[in-house]
Amino acid sequence: MEIILKNLQKKIPIPKTKILNAAKTAIHKLRKKSRDRHYFFFKKAVPVPAFSLSIVFVGTKRMGAINKNFLNHDYVTDVLTFDLGEGSAEIIICPQVADMNAKEFQSTTEKELILYVIHGILHLAGYDDHHPKDIQKMRQMEKRLL
Q1: Three-state DSSP class for residue 91
Q2: Could you report the per-residue pLDDT of 55-87, keeping only the tens digit for each?
């Protein structure tokens, strides 16, 4: 299992060690929960040693462009997750949105960033957040993994 962090923005400091630890812990807990602990479930079962996850931090302009290009949403969002196939995935996070949301929800930017990493990993594990029941399941699992 390989987790790579890339910071392509300069406005918000990234707590790299805490992000890596949160990602590894979430994946470990999800593996323990799954029927076969040797696999991390993307849309298809992928052996854990063979999967690669990139977590990329970008600015608002780049996040808006990615959201527009890939999802046809014309706004900046907090986190996007892409299953690239063959055991590779990418989670893209906008720290400036995390910073704004931290102020709104009386949290910290660091906690928001970690939440977005876990949220992205849950998407890769098959969780969805488009319907109220799915949102509730995802929020419960986020709390459990935090």
Answers
A1: strand
A2: 999 999 999 999 999 999 999 999 999 988 877
